[in-house]
Amino acid sequence: MHRKNIRRMVIKQLKYNHPHWQRMTKKSKKILIQEVVDEVVKDYDYSQSLDLPIEKLTGIDNQTPSKGIRSLPEMAGYINNFYSDNFVDFDKIKKPHPEIIDPELKFIDDLLDNQIINSLLAPVGYSAPHRYIQPFQLFRMELLKILKYPEISYRKFCTYEYFGMERKQNRRFVRLPLNTKDMVHHTELSHFRTGLHFRQVMNVFVYILHYFYQSGCLDNTVLHGVDSTELPCETNYPLCTVKIKGKKIRIYSDPDCDCGKRRSKRDKSHYVIGYRLHTLTAINPSTGHSFPLVSVVSAANHHDSLFLKPLIKLAQAIGIDMKLITADQAYHDKDGSVLDETGVYVVAPPCEKVNIPDNVVKSPVRVSCNDACEIPMRALGVSKEGHEFGCNANPGECIFEPTCSKSRIIAFDKGHFQPMPSFYTASQQAMDIRKNCERPFNLMKKREGLETTRVRSQHGVVVRSTFTTIATLLIEMAGTRHKPAKKKDKQKEFFAATG
Asked: 186-195 and 458-478 are packed helices; what angle lies between their axes, rounded to 10 degrees?
C-alpha cells in the first residue's frame, strides 16, 4: 500500500502544484516528473500507518457518493414536481418532429425532457438566454455520436458531412436550426465533457435509470453481477520509472492510468496500459439478458477486489436495491466484510487454492463435528465469526452425545464457505448465470465504440463510459435492434412427436 500512496502523492503534486504541466514538451515533462518523484520518495516515511480510505489509494475518491447526487426515489419526485409551478406544461403540448424518421431516435427524442436535462447538467451561474448552445444539445450530440456514429472521431463528427443543412434528422435531434448552417465545434463538446462534475454525470444517469426501471426490461426478481474490462490508452512508454522495494512505480503522460495485467487473449499482450472499468450489471433471470448499471473507473494495475465495496456503496447511494451479487474469483468476499458493511451477499466460484477445513467432505459438501463423528451437521446460519453448524443426530443416535459440543463454527474463506456458501442451490444458479454479465461489455466496447474512443484523462473516461451506459440502456428501452423471434417449424414438431 505504500507504493500506492507514493504514486498518489506524486500525481497530486503534478495536478495541483503544476496544473499546466500537460502543455510542456516531452523532455520538460520527464525532468519535472523525475524531480517530483525524487522529492516524494526522499521524504517518505515507510513506518507510518496508512489510515487513508481505499478510494484515495486507488484514485477513485472523485467517484464516491457525494452531496447533490439524487437517488432514484428523489429523482422520481424531482421529475413529477418539475413543472408544478407552471400554469401550463408547454413541454407536454410540443409538436412532433417529422424530420426524425429513425424509430430509435424518435423514441429517445420523445423520452428526453430538455428542460430537466438542462437543470441536471447546467453549471453554477447558468443562464439560458446568454447561451447559443444549451447543455441538453451537447448531451444529445454525445448520444447521437454513440448511437449512430461510434466508429468516427469527434473532429469528423462535428462537420457538414453529419450536420449539414441536408442532415435534417441529425440537426433536429440535437435541436439545431434547420434554416442555417450553424454547427457545434468539436472543441465545445470536449469542453462540455471536461467541465462536467461527477455529481452532474450521475444525476443525468439516474434520470435515465428511472425510466429504465419503468420500461419493463427487468422483472421483479433481479440478480446483479460485477465484472471488469480494460480500456487501453494510446500511451506506450512511461515518462518516469522508480523502483520501490522491488516493485516499479510508473508515471505516464496521462498520470491517472497505469500498466496492469489482463486475461490471456489470443491476439493481445498480457499487459495493458490504461484503465479498468468495474461495472455493476442487472441480470434478468427469466430471459438471461443483462444490462449495465453503475461503473467505477480505475487505473489498470489495481486488483479487482479493491473496488467491490466502493461500487456497491455508490449503487446503494443512488437507490439500487441489491441482495445478491454474482462475480468471478477476483471479487471474493473472503472475510465477510462486504456483507457486514453493505448487507449484500457476494457469491463467486470457489478458489481451488483454498484448503478444505478439517472434518469436511468436499463432494458433496458435508460438515461433521470432529474426527470420530460421522453424522453430517446442519447449517444454523451466519454470524460475524463465520458459518454456524449444529448437531443433526436423532436422540440416542450419537454415542458421543454426553461429551460433544454439538456445534461448530467455520470461518469465512474464498472456497466453499463464503458468506453465501457455494454449495447452496441459489449459489449454484447464480454462478451458472454469471457469464451473462460479460455481454454488456462487448456491446459497450464494440457497438457503442467505447474501446476506440480517444480520451486522455480519467475524468474523460468516467464521463464517456457513463454516456455509453446511458446509450446502452436507451437502446434496450427502444427495442428496435432486437432480432425477431424465430418461428418454430410446425412440421418438424409434428414429425418429432410422431417419430
From this structure: 100
Instruction: Show the cell assigned to 497.
Output: 412427436
Residue 362 scores a pLDDT above 60: yes
Do 166 and 278 form a contact (C-beta atoms < 8 A)?
A: no
Strand (E) or helix (H) holding 8:
helix 2-17
pTM (2 d.p.) = 0.89
Bridge partners (DSSP) listed for residue 391: none
Backbone Cα Rg of the chain: 27
Q: Is the pLDDT of residue 173 over 90?
A: yes
> Domain residues of the chain, as ranges?
2-60, 96-195, 203-349+430-478, 355-412
Residue 206 CA to its chain's centroid (Å):
14
Residue 333 carries which DSSP code? -
Q: How many helices, marked H, and strands, marked E, lie in the chain?
A: 18, 13
User: Is residue 256 within 8 Å of 457, Cβ to Cβ?
Assistant: yes
Residues contacting residue 188 through CB under 8 Å, at least 6 positions apart: 133, 138
What does the pLDDT read at residue 292? 93
In angstroms, the CA 285 to CA 237 distance is 44
Measured from the Cβ of residue 339, the count of other Cβ atoms closer than 10 Å reads 18
CA angle (354, 358, 362) in 5-degree steps: 60
Cα distances (angstroms) measured from residue 233 to each of 60, 104, 183, 275: 18, 31, 29, 8
**Which DSSP letter does residue 151 get?**
T
Q: Please give the pLDDT value at position 89.
A: 57
The total of other beta-carbon atoms located within 10 Å of residue 282's CB is 22
Cα–Cα distance measured from residue 444 to residue 278, given in angstroms and rounded to the nearest whole number: 13
For residues 338 and 344, give the distance between their C-alpha atoms in angstroms, rounded to a whole number: 7
| pLDDT digit string, tens, across residues 389-410 | 888 777 777 777 777 777 888 8
283, containing H or E segment: strand 271-283
| Cα–Cα distance measured from residue 440 to residue 446, given in angstroms and rounded to the nearest whole number | 10
- What architecture is domain 203-349+430-478? 2-Layer Sandwich (3.30)
Return the residue matching grid coordinates 451473462.
Answer: 436
Cell matching residue 404: 460433544
pLDDT > 50? residue 499: no
Q: Is 220 exposed, middle or buried (0-12, 13-18, 19+ CB in 10 A)?
A: exposed
Q: Is the dihedral of CA 207, 309, 431, 272 positive or negative?
A: positive
- Cβ atoms 89, 80 nearer than 8 A: no
- Alpha-carbon span 113 to 94, nearest angstrom: 11
**Could you read off the pLDDT of 299-357 as tens digits, one per residue?**
998 988 899 999 999 999 999 999 899 998 888 888 888 888 898 989 988 888 888 88
pLDDT at 88: 55
- Exposed/middle/buried for residue 186 (C-beta within 10 Å: 0-12, 13-18, 19+): middle
Cβ within 8 Å of residue 471, ≥6 positions away: 143, 146, 147, 448
- Which residue is associated with the grid cell 496508512? 50
